[in-house]
From TrEMBL:
Residues 1-28 form the signal peptide. Keywords: Signal. The keyword Signal applies. It comes from Streptomyces nojiriensis. It comes from the Bacteria. Belongs to the glycosyl hydrolase 33 family. Coiled coil: none annotated. This is exo-alpha-sialidase. Its EC number is 3.2.1.18.
Protein backbone atom coordinates (compact mmCIF):
# COMPACT_ATOMS: atom_id res chain seq x y z
CA UNK A 1 0.00 0.00 0.00
CA UNK A 2 1.34 3.39 -0.96
CA UNK A 3 -1.44 5.68 0.19
CA UNK A 4 -4.54 5.02 2.25
CA UNK A 5 -7.84 4.36 0.52
CA UNK A 6 -11.32 4.65 2.04
CA UNK A 7 -12.71 1.29 3.10
CA UNK A 8 -15.00 1.18 0.12
CA UNK A 9 -11.75 0.71 -1.79
CA UNK A 10 -9.60 -0.97 0.85
CA UNK A 11 -11.16 -4.36 0.26
CA UNK A 12 -10.30 -3.99 -3.40
CA UNK A 13 -6.85 -2.51 -3.16
CA UNK A 14 -5.32 -1.98 0.25
CA UNK A 15 -3.49 -5.27 0.42
CA UNK A 16 -1.75 -4.48 -2.81
CA UNK A 17 1.06 -3.33 -0.63
CA UNK A 18 1.09 -5.11 1.36
CA UNK A 19 6.05 -28.38 8.35
CA UNK A 20 6.98 -29.52 4.85
CA UNK A 21 10.69 -29.91 4.19
CA UNK A 22 12.88 -30.17 1.13
CA UNK A 23 16.52 -29.49 0.39
CA UNK A 24 17.49 -26.88 -2.19
CA UNK A 25 20.87 -27.40 -3.84
CA UNK A 26 23.12 -24.48 -4.65
CA UNK A 27 22.32 -22.84 -7.98
CA UNK A 28 24.86 -22.17 -10.69
CA UNK A 29 26.79 -18.92 -10.51
CA UNK A 30 24.27 -16.19 -11.37
CA UNK A 31 26.24 -13.06 -10.53
CA UNK A 32 29.20 -11.88 -12.59
CA UNK A 33 31.25 -10.42 -9.74
CA UNK A 34 31.52 -12.50 -6.61
CA UNK A 35 30.43 -15.85 -5.16
CA UNK A 36 27.37 -17.63 -6.57
CA UNK A 37 23.88 -16.88 -5.41
CA UNK A 38 21.95 -19.80 -3.98
CA UNK A 39 18.29 -20.37 -4.80
CA UNK A 40 16.34 -20.74 -1.57
CA UNK A 41 12.85 -21.18 -3.03
CA UNK A 42 12.26 -24.62 -4.48
CA UNK A 43 8.91 -26.27 -5.12
CA UNK A 44 5.50 -25.02 -4.04
CA UNK A 45 4.10 -26.38 -0.75
CA UNK A 46 0.76 -24.63 -1.37
CA UNK A 47 0.21 -25.70 -4.98
CA UNK A 48 -2.90 -27.73 -4.14
CA UNK A 49 -4.47 -25.14 -1.84
CA UNK A 50 -7.78 -23.78 -3.20
CA UNK A 51 -8.47 -21.29 -0.40
CA UNK A 52 -8.37 -17.55 -0.84
CA UNK A 53 -10.14 -16.46 -4.05
CA UNK A 54 -12.12 -13.34 -3.21
CA UNK A 55 -13.82 -12.78 -6.58
CA UNK A 56 -13.89 -14.13 -10.15
CA UNK A 57 -11.21 -11.55 -10.92
CA UNK A 58 -8.78 -12.93 -8.33
CA UNK A 59 -5.63 -14.32 -9.94
CA UNK A 60 -3.06 -16.40 -8.10
CA UNK A 61 0.43 -16.70 -9.53
CA UNK A 62 1.55 -20.28 -8.86
CA UNK A 63 5.08 -21.02 -7.73
CA UNK A 64 5.89 -17.33 -7.34
CA UNK A 65 8.07 -16.34 -4.42
CA UNK A 66 8.36 -12.62 -3.66
CA UNK A 67 9.10 -10.12 -0.87
CA UNK A 68 11.92 -11.93 0.94
CA UNK A 69 13.59 -11.09 4.21
CA UNK A 70 16.30 -12.89 6.19
CA UNK A 71 18.17 -13.21 9.46
CA UNK A 72 21.52 -14.66 10.49
CA UNK A 73 22.24 -16.33 13.83
CA UNK A 74 24.64 -13.94 15.62
CA UNK A 75 26.44 -16.97 17.09
CA UNK A 76 27.05 -18.67 13.73
CA UNK A 77 26.72 -16.85 10.38
CA UNK A 78 26.22 -20.16 8.56
CA UNK A 79 22.81 -20.51 10.22
CA UNK A 80 20.49 -18.44 8.03
CA UNK A 81 16.71 -18.21 7.80
CA UNK A 82 14.94 -16.57 4.88
CA UNK A 83 11.19 -15.94 4.60
CA UNK A 84 9.03 -14.96 1.63
CA UNK A 85 5.52 -14.88 0.18
CA UNK A 86 4.47 -18.03 -1.66
CA UNK A 87 1.94 -17.90 -4.54
CA UNK A 88 1.14 -14.20 -4.76
CA UNK A 89 -2.44 -13.06 -5.48
CA UNK A 90 -3.08 -10.09 -7.79
CA UNK A 91 -5.46 -8.45 -5.30
CA UNK A 92 -3.55 -8.76 -2.05
CA UNK A 93 -1.37 -11.16 -0.12
CA UNK A 94 -0.34 -14.70 -0.97
CA UNK A 95 -1.51 -18.23 -0.31
CA UNK A 96 0.96 -18.33 2.53
CA UNK A 97 4.43 -17.60 3.83
CA UNK A 98 7.42 -19.94 3.68
CA UNK A 99 10.76 -20.14 5.48
CA UNK A 100 14.00 -21.57 4.10
CA UNK A 101 16.85 -22.43 6.47
CA UNK A 102 20.43 -23.63 6.37
CA UNK A 103 23.10 -24.68 8.83
CA UNK A 104 26.02 -24.45 6.40
CA UNK A 105 25.15 -21.25 4.52
CA UNK A 106 24.71 -23.11 1.22
CA UNK A 107 22.13 -25.89 1.28
CA UNK A 108 18.67 -24.62 2.15
CA UNK A 109 15.67 -26.57 3.41
CA UNK A 110 12.03 -25.51 3.40
CA UNK A 111 9.54 -25.16 6.23
CA UNK A 112 6.05 -23.68 6.11
CA UNK A 113 5.14 -20.74 8.30
CA UNK A 114 1.78 -21.30 10.05
CA UNK A 115 0.22 -17.97 9.10
CA UNK A 116 -2.58 -19.03 6.72
CA UNK A 117 -5.01 -21.89 6.13
CA UNK A 118 -2.88 -23.16 3.25
CA UNK A 119 -0.10 -24.09 5.70
CA UNK A 120 -0.34 -27.30 7.75
CA UNK A 121 -1.60 -26.31 11.18
CA UNK A 122 -1.83 -22.71 10.03
CA UNK A 123 -3.84 -19.83 11.44
CA UNK A 124 -7.44 -19.31 10.38
CA UNK A 125 -6.77 -16.76 7.63
CA UNK A 126 -7.32 -17.15 3.90
CA UNK A 127 -4.12 -15.36 2.87
CA UNK A 128 -0.89 -14.09 4.39
CA UNK A 129 1.54 -11.28 3.63
CA UNK A 130 4.43 -9.17 4.94
CA UNK A 131 6.90 -11.89 6.03
CA UNK A 132 9.61 -10.91 8.49
CA UNK A 133 12.26 -12.77 10.48
CA UNK A 134 14.85 -11.91 13.15
CA UNK A 135 17.19 -14.00 15.33
CA UNK A 136 17.96 -13.20 18.95
CA UNK A 137 21.31 -13.46 20.76
CA UNK A 138 20.39 -16.90 22.12
CA UNK A 139 19.56 -18.26 18.64
CA UNK A 140 15.77 -18.02 18.96
CA UNK A 141 14.29 -17.22 15.55
CA UNK A 142 11.21 -15.01 15.51
CA UNK A 143 8.99 -14.87 12.41
CA UNK A 144 6.03 -12.62 11.82
CA UNK A 145 3.47 -11.92 9.15
CA UNK A 146 -0.04 -10.76 8.56
CA UNK A 147 -3.11 -12.95 8.14
CA UNK A 148 -5.88 -11.63 5.91
CA UNK A 149 -9.49 -12.62 5.25
CA UNK A 150 -11.73 -11.36 2.46
CA UNK A 151 -14.65 -13.74 1.92
CA UNK A 152 -15.85 -14.32 5.50
CA UNK A 153 -15.08 -10.76 6.60
CA UNK A 154 -12.34 -8.23 6.13
CA UNK A 155 -9.92 -9.15 8.92
CA UNK A 156 -6.26 -8.33 9.32
CA UNK A 157 -4.21 -9.97 12.04
CA UNK A 158 -0.63 -9.65 13.24
CA UNK A 159 0.89 -13.10 13.73
CA UNK A 160 4.14 -14.36 15.25
CA UNK A 161 5.87 -17.71 15.71
CA UNK A 162 9.25 -18.88 17.00
CA UNK A 163 11.78 -21.53 16.13
CA UNK A 164 14.44 -22.91 18.44
CA UNK A 165 15.98 -25.22 15.87
CA UNK A 166 17.10 -22.68 13.28
CA UNK A 167 13.87 -22.54 11.26
CA UNK A 168 13.21 -26.29 10.89
CA UNK A 169 10.01 -26.16 12.94
CA UNK A 170 7.83 -23.37 14.32
CA UNK A 171 6.03 -23.09 17.64
CA UNK A 172 4.16 -20.55 19.76
CA UNK A 173 1.87 -19.36 16.97
CA UNK A 174 0.38 -16.17 18.41
CA UNK A 175 -2.14 -13.64 17.19
CA UNK A 176 -0.66 -10.45 18.60
CA UNK A 177 -3.52 -8.31 17.29
CA UNK A 178 -6.59 -8.64 15.04
CA UNK A 179 -9.11 -6.15 13.62
CA UNK A 180 -12.09 -6.12 11.30
CA UNK A 181 -13.37 -3.20 9.24
CA UNK A 182 -13.12 -0.24 9.57
CA UNK A 183 -9.61 -0.91 10.93
CA UNK A 184 -6.79 -2.16 8.76
CA UNK A 185 -3.36 -3.30 9.97
CA UNK A 186 -0.43 -2.99 7.60
CA UNK A 187 3.31 -3.48 7.10
CA UNK A 188 4.42 -5.22 10.29
CA UNK A 189 8.09 -5.84 11.01
CA UNK A 190 9.81 -7.70 13.83
CA UNK A 191 13.15 -7.08 15.54
CA UNK A 192 14.82 -9.40 18.06
CA UNK A 193 16.68 -7.38 20.68
CA UNK A 194 20.40 -8.15 20.16
CA UNK A 195 21.35 -7.68 23.84
CA UNK A 196 18.22 -8.80 25.74
CA UNK A 197 17.60 -12.55 25.55
CA UNK A 198 14.00 -13.48 24.85
CA UNK A 199 12.93 -9.95 23.84
CA UNK A 200 11.53 -9.00 20.46
CA UNK A 201 9.41 -6.14 19.12
CA UNK A 202 6.66 -6.26 16.51
CA UNK A 203 5.60 -2.88 15.08
CA UNK A 204 3.10 -1.84 12.40
CA UNK A 205 0.59 0.85 11.41
CA UNK A 206 -3.09 0.52 12.29
CA UNK A 207 -5.42 2.46 10.01
CA UNK A 208 -8.72 3.71 11.42
CA UNK A 209 -11.34 4.75 8.87
CA UNK A 210 -14.33 4.97 11.22
CA UNK A 211 -16.74 6.07 9.90
CA UNK A 212 -15.81 5.02 6.37
CA UNK A 213 -15.20 7.87 3.98
CA UNK A 214 -13.10 11.02 3.67
CA UNK A 215 -11.93 13.14 6.60
CA UNK A 216 -11.75 10.24 9.01
CA UNK A 217 -8.32 8.68 8.60
CA UNK A 218 -5.96 8.02 11.50
CA UNK A 219 -2.95 5.71 11.24
CA UNK A 220 -0.83 5.50 14.40
CA UNK A 221 2.07 3.16 14.96
CA UNK A 222 1.40 0.11 17.16
CA UNK A 223 3.73 -2.18 19.09
CA UNK A 224 3.61 -5.60 20.75
CA UNK A 225 6.52 -7.02 22.75
CA UNK A 226 7.62 -10.45 23.92
CA UNK A 227 10.04 -10.83 26.81
CA UNK A 228 9.84 -14.62 27.18
CA UNK A 229 11.15 -15.81 23.82
CA UNK A 230 7.86 -15.53 21.95
CA UNK A 231 5.77 -17.67 24.28
CA UNK A 232 3.56 -14.67 25.04
CA UNK A 233 3.22 -11.20 23.58
CA UNK A 234 1.98 -8.00 25.20
CA UNK A 235 -1.29 -6.44 24.20
CA UNK A 236 -0.95 -4.17 21.19
CA UNK A 237 -0.76 -0.48 22.03
CA UNK A 238 -0.12 2.74 20.10
CA UNK A 239 3.32 4.28 20.46
CA UNK A 240 3.40 6.80 17.59
CA UNK A 241 0.49 9.23 17.56
CA UNK A 242 -1.11 10.67 14.40
CA UNK A 243 -4.29 12.17 15.85
CA UNK A 244 -3.15 15.79 15.98
CA UNK A 245 -3.18 16.29 12.18
CA UNK A 246 -6.29 15.08 10.30
CA UNK A 247 -5.93 12.37 7.68
CA UNK A 248 -2.45 11.34 8.75
CA UNK A 249 -1.03 7.83 8.79
CA UNK A 250 2.31 6.13 9.39
CA UNK A 251 3.79 3.22 7.45
CA UNK A 252 6.98 1.17 7.33
CA UNK A 253 7.78 0.96 11.05
CA UNK A 254 11.10 -0.80 11.66
CA UNK A 255 13.18 -0.95 14.85
CA UNK A 256 16.97 -1.13 15.03
CA UNK A 257 18.91 -1.40 18.30
CA UNK A 258 22.23 0.11 19.37
CA UNK A 259 24.06 -2.81 20.97
CA UNK A 260 26.23 -0.53 23.14
CA UNK A 261 23.52 1.63 24.68
CA UNK A 262 20.47 -0.61 24.28
CA UNK A 263 18.59 2.30 22.68
CA UNK A 264 15.77 1.38 20.30
CA UNK A 265 15.16 3.46 17.17
CA UNK A 266 11.88 3.08 15.29
CA UNK A 267 11.90 4.53 11.76
CA UNK A 268 8.74 5.16 9.73
CA UNK A 269 7.11 7.35 7.08
CA UNK A 270 4.45 9.86 8.21
CA UNK A 271 1.99 10.73 5.42
CA UNK A 272 -0.72 13.40 5.52
CA UNK A 273 -3.47 13.21 2.90
CA UNK A 274 -5.89 15.73 1.48
CA UNK A 275 -9.39 15.90 2.93
CA UNK A 276 -10.77 13.51 0.30
CA UNK A 277 -7.71 11.24 0.73
CA UNK A 278 -6.91 11.50 -2.99
CA UNK A 279 -3.51 13.16 -2.75
CA UNK A 280 -0.54 13.36 -0.42
CA UNK A 281 -0.14 16.77 1.19
CA UNK A 282 3.08 16.01 3.05
CA UNK A 283 5.30 12.99 3.67
CA UNK A 284 8.42 12.74 5.80
CA UNK A 285 10.49 10.04 7.44
CA UNK A 286 10.72 10.22 11.22
CA UNK A 287 12.33 8.34 14.10
CA UNK A 288 11.32 7.80 17.72
CA UNK A 289 13.62 6.38 20.39
CA UNK A 290 13.26 4.29 23.53
CA UNK A 291 15.87 3.87 26.27
CA UNK A 292 13.83 1.43 28.36
CA UNK A 293 13.33 -1.51 25.98
CA UNK A 294 10.15 -0.18 24.38
CA UNK A 295 8.23 0.87 27.49
CA UNK A 296 8.27 4.59 26.63
CA UNK A 297 9.13 6.51 23.47
CA UNK A 298 10.39 9.96 22.58
CA UNK A 299 8.67 12.57 20.46
CA UNK A 300 9.36 12.06 16.73
CA UNK A 301 12.34 13.65 14.97
CA UNK A 302 12.28 14.34 11.23
CA UNK A 303 14.88 12.27 9.38
CA UNK A 304 14.26 13.27 5.75
CA UNK A 305 11.54 14.44 3.42
CA UNK A 306 9.87 11.65 1.46
CA UNK A 307 10.35 12.76 -2.14
CA UNK A 308 9.50 9.44 -3.81
CA UNK A 309 7.48 9.53 -7.01
CA UNK A 310 5.37 6.82 -8.68
CA UNK A 311 7.38 3.71 -9.56
CA UNK A 312 6.94 3.09 -13.29
CA UNK A 313 8.70 1.74 -16.35
CA UNK A 314 10.61 4.83 -17.58
CA UNK A 315 9.94 3.98 -21.21
CA UNK A 316 6.24 3.34 -20.64
CA UNK A 317 4.87 5.08 -17.53
CA UNK A 318 1.55 3.27 -17.91
CA UNK A 319 3.37 0.15 -16.67
CA UNK A 320 3.33 0.39 -12.88
CA UNK A 321 6.06 -1.14 -10.72
CA UNK A 322 5.86 -2.20 -7.04
CA UNK A 323 8.97 -1.58 -4.96
CA UNK A 324 9.89 0.12 -1.67
CA UNK A 325 8.76 3.73 -1.89
CA UNK A 326 7.54 5.02 1.53
CA UNK A 327 9.46 2.24 3.32
CA UNK A 328 12.67 3.20 5.16
CA UNK A 329 15.64 0.85 5.59
CA UNK A 330 17.66 1.81 8.70
CA UNK A 331 20.85 0.46 10.28
CA UNK A 332 23.16 1.33 13.16
CA UNK A 333 26.94 1.06 13.15
CA UNK A 334 27.79 -1.52 15.85
CA UNK A 335 31.02 0.32 16.75
CA UNK A 336 30.22 4.03 16.57
CA UNK A 337 26.42 4.13 16.92
CA UNK A 338 26.11 6.15 13.71
CA UNK A 339 22.59 5.78 12.34
CA UNK A 340 21.83 5.39 8.64
CA UNK A 341 18.57 5.35 6.71
CA UNK A 342 18.27 4.43 3.01
CA UNK A 343 15.14 5.18 1.02
CA UNK A 344 13.75 5.88 -2.43
CA UNK A 345 13.70 9.58 -3.32
CA UNK A 346 13.73 11.89 -6.32
CA UNK A 347 15.95 14.70 -4.97
CA UNK A 348 18.71 13.91 -7.47
CA UNK A 349 16.50 13.60 -10.57
CA UNK A 350 14.49 16.80 -10.20
CA UNK A 351 11.43 14.77 -9.27
CA UNK A 352 11.52 12.65 -12.43
CA UNK A 353 12.30 9.24 -10.92
CA UNK A 354 13.48 7.59 -7.73
CA UNK A 355 17.09 6.94 -6.81
CA UNK A 356 18.60 5.31 -3.73
CA UNK A 357 19.29 8.01 -1.15
CA UNK A 358 21.02 7.87 2.22
CA UNK A 359 20.94 10.06 5.32
CA UNK A 360 22.94 9.67 8.52
CA UNK A 361 23.05 10.85 12.12
CA UNK A 362 26.10 10.87 14.39
CA UNK A 363 24.32 12.15 17.50
CA UNK A 364 21.84 9.40 18.30
CA UNK A 365 19.17 10.52 15.83
CA UNK A 366 18.77 14.06 17.16
CA UNK A 367 19.93 15.67 13.90
CA UNK A 368 20.33 14.33 10.37
CA UNK A 369 22.52 15.27 7.43
CA UNK A 370 21.45 16.07 3.89
CA UNK A 371 20.57 13.23 1.49
CA UNK A 372 23.43 11.53 -0.35
CA UNK A 373 23.03 9.80 -3.72
CA UNK A 374 24.04 6.13 -3.59
CA UNK A 375 22.75 4.66 -6.86
CA UNK A 376 24.24 5.85 -10.18
CA UNK A 377 23.24 9.31 -11.33
CA UNK A 378 20.59 9.32 -14.04
CA UNK A 379 19.45 5.73 -13.43
CA UNK A 380 16.15 4.82 -11.72
CA UNK A 381 16.82 2.66 -8.66
CA UNK A 382 14.51 0.93 -6.21
CA UNK A 383 14.15 -1.09 -3.01
CA UNK A 384 17.24 -0.13 -1.01
CA UNK A 385 18.34 -2.26 1.93
CA UNK A 386 21.12 -1.19 4.29
CA UNK A 387 23.39 -2.92 6.81
CA UNK A 388 26.65 -2.16 8.62
CA UNK A 389 29.22 -4.90 9.22
CA UNK A 390 31.42 -5.40 12.28
CA UNK A 391 34.21 -3.27 10.82
CA UNK A 392 31.92 -0.31 10.21
CA UNK A 393 31.56 -0.81 6.46
CA UNK A 394 28.20 0.42 5.22
CA UNK A 395 26.54 -1.79 2.59
CA UNK A 396 23.48 -1.08 0.46
CA UNK A 397 21.65 -3.25 -2.05
CA UNK A 398 19.11 -2.13 -4.64
CA UNK A 399 17.58 -2.83 -8.03
CA UNK A 400 18.40 -0.46 -10.88
CA UNK A 401 17.61 -0.05 -14.57
CA UNK A 402 21.03 0.81 -16.03
CA UNK A 403 20.62 -1.86 -18.74
CA UNK A 404 17.34 -0.44 -20.08
CA UNK A 405 17.75 0.89 -23.62
CA UNK A 406 15.81 3.92 -24.91
CA UNK A 407 12.67 2.86 -26.70
CA UNK A 408 12.50 -0.63 -25.19
CA UNK A 409 8.91 -1.00 -24.01
CA UNK A 410 8.65 -4.78 -24.16
CA UNK A 411 11.16 -5.71 -21.46
CA UNK A 412 12.54 -4.05 -18.34
CA UNK A 413 16.14 -5.31 -17.85
CA UNK A 414 16.89 -5.15 -14.13
CA UNK A 415 19.83 -6.11 -11.93
CA UNK A 416 20.58 -6.11 -8.22
CA UNK A 417 23.56 -4.09 -7.06
CA UNK A 418 25.69 -4.05 -3.90
CA UNK A 419 27.41 -0.79 -2.91
CA UNK A 420 29.90 -0.62 -0.05
CA UNK A 421 31.22 2.44 1.77
CA UNK A 422 34.03 1.76 4.28
CA UNK A 423 33.15 3.64 7.47
CA UNK A 424 30.31 5.21 5.52
CA UNK A 425 32.73 7.27 3.40
CA UNK A 426 31.09 8.08 0.03
CA UNK A 427 34.52 8.86 -1.46
CA UNK A 428 35.49 5.20 -1.00
CA UNK A 429 32.29 3.80 -2.47
CA UNK A 430 32.51 0.67 -4.63
CA UNK A 431 29.73 -1.19 -6.41
CA UNK A 432 29.23 -4.63 -7.92
CA UNK A 433 26.37 -6.42 -9.62
CA UNK A 434 25.27 -9.47 -7.63
CA UNK A 435 22.36 -10.78 -9.72
CA UNK A 436 21.91 -11.70 -13.34
CA UNK A 437 20.03 -9.25 -15.56
CA UNK A 438 16.35 -10.21 -15.60
CA UNK A 439 13.07 -8.80 -16.96
CA UNK A 440 11.07 -7.13 -14.18
CA UNK A 441 7.94 -7.25 -16.39
CA UNK A 442 7.79 -11.03 -15.91
CA UNK A 443 6.91 -10.54 -12.22
CA UNK A 444 3.38 -11.12 -10.93
CA UNK A 445 1.15 -8.06 -11.24
CA UNK A 446 -0.30 -6.82 -7.95
CA UNK A 447 -0.87 -3.10 -8.15
CA UNK A 448 2.32 -3.05 -10.23
CA UNK A 449 4.88 -5.59 -11.38
CA UNK A 450 5.74 -6.98 -7.97
CA UNK A 451 9.08 -8.25 -6.67
CA UNK A 452 8.12 -7.32 -3.14
CA UNK A 453 7.71 -4.17 -1.09
CA UNK A 454 11.14 -4.95 0.36
CA UNK A 455 14.17 -7.23 0.03
CA UNK A 456 16.69 -8.07 2.79
CA UNK A 457 20.29 -7.37 3.80
CA UNK A 458 22.05 -8.20 7.10
CA UNK A 459 25.58 -8.26 8.45
CA UNK A 460 26.85 -11.83 8.81
CA UNK A 461 30.22 -11.58 10.55
CA UNK A 462 32.47 -11.64 7.48
CA UNK A 463 30.50 -9.06 5.51
CA UNK A 464 26.83 -8.99 4.52
CA UNK A 465 24.25 -11.45 3.27
CA UNK A 466 21.56 -10.38 0.81
CA UNK A 467 18.27 -11.94 -0.21
CA UNK A 468 16.46 -10.88 -3.39
CA UNK A 469 13.84 -11.77 -5.98
CA UNK A 470 14.56 -12.50 -9.63
CA UNK A 471 12.13 -13.25 -12.45
CA UNK A 472 12.16 -15.95 -15.13
CA UNK A 473 11.20 -15.25 -18.73
CA UNK A 474 8.57 -17.34 -20.50
CA UNK A 475 7.71 -19.22 -17.30
CA UNK A 476 4.11 -18.32 -16.36
CA UNK A 477 3.98 -21.19 -13.87
CA UNK A 478 7.20 -20.09 -12.15
CA UNK A 479 7.60 -16.35 -12.62
CA UNK A 480 9.96 -15.65 -9.72
CA UNK A 481 12.39 -17.23 -7.29
CA UNK A 482 14.29 -16.02 -4.24
CA UNK A 483 18.10 -16.11 -4.03
CA UNK A 484 20.68 -15.35 -1.37
CA UNK A 485 24.42 -14.80 -1.20
CA UNK A 486 27.09 -13.76 1.29
CA UNK A 487 29.54 -11.04 0.24
CA UNK A 488 32.73 -9.69 1.77
CA UNK A 489 32.72 -5.94 2.22
CA UNK A 490 36.47 -5.35 2.29
Amino acid sequence: MRVFLPLTAVTAAALLLVTVTGATPAAADRNPDGPPLVKVSHGDPYAKCTIGARSPDSIVYPATEVEPYLSVDPRDPRRVVTVFQQDRWNDGGARGLVASWTTDGHTFHRSTLPFSLCAPGGADYERATDPWVSTGPDGTVYASGEGVDFTKSTRTALLAATSRDGGRTWQNLTTTHVDEQPFFNDKPSLTADPIRNGTAYQVWNRLDNDPPGPSSLDGPGYISVTRDGGRTWSGARPFVDTSTVPNTQTIGHLIVVDRHTGTLYDFFDRITHSEDLSTVVEARYEVVTSTDAGETWSAPVTVAKDTSVPEVDPNDPTKLLRAASTLPSPAVDPKTGTLYMAYEGSDFSGGRFDSVQLVRSTDGGRTWGAPELISPEGVPAFSPSVAVDERGTLALTYYDLRFLEPGDTTTLPTAYQLATLPHGDPQRRTERQISRVFDWLQAPFAGGYFLGDYQGLVADGKGVRAVLTETHSDAPQNRTDVYTGSFRTS
